Amino acid sequence: MQTLHVSKRTLQSLRDSGVLPYSRINGKFYYKVSDLENLLTSNYSNLNSKDHGINRETN
Fold it and tell me: Which pLDDT value is given to residue 27?
């Protein structure tokens, strides 16, 4: 959780929706690094570095 900088509730939502696989041992949740990397990769958005999706007009 600290490494990911996300709340416990966000992790719970990802688990409940089946988006993020996990193991639970003695009440603690564990995640595979490869599953986290896959989640990040599949949701990565590469914005155009020129305008970052913002419509800028020049005067």
Answer: 95
What's the rounded Cα separation, in Å, for the pair 46 and 38?
A: 16
Query: Which residue, chain included where needed, has tokens 């005067």?
Result: 59
The DSSP 8-state label assigned to residue 17 in this structure reads T
Find all residues with CB under 8 Å of 23, minimum gap 6, and list them. 29, 30, 31
* pTM of the full structure: 0.66
Instruction: Locate the domains of the chain by residue range.
Output: 8-42
Per-residue b or e along 16-45, where b marks 16 or more CB atoms closer than 10 Å to that residue's CB:
eeeebeeeeeeeeeebeeeeeeebeeeeee
Which residue from 24, 20, 22 is spatially nearest to 39, judged by alpha carbons? 20
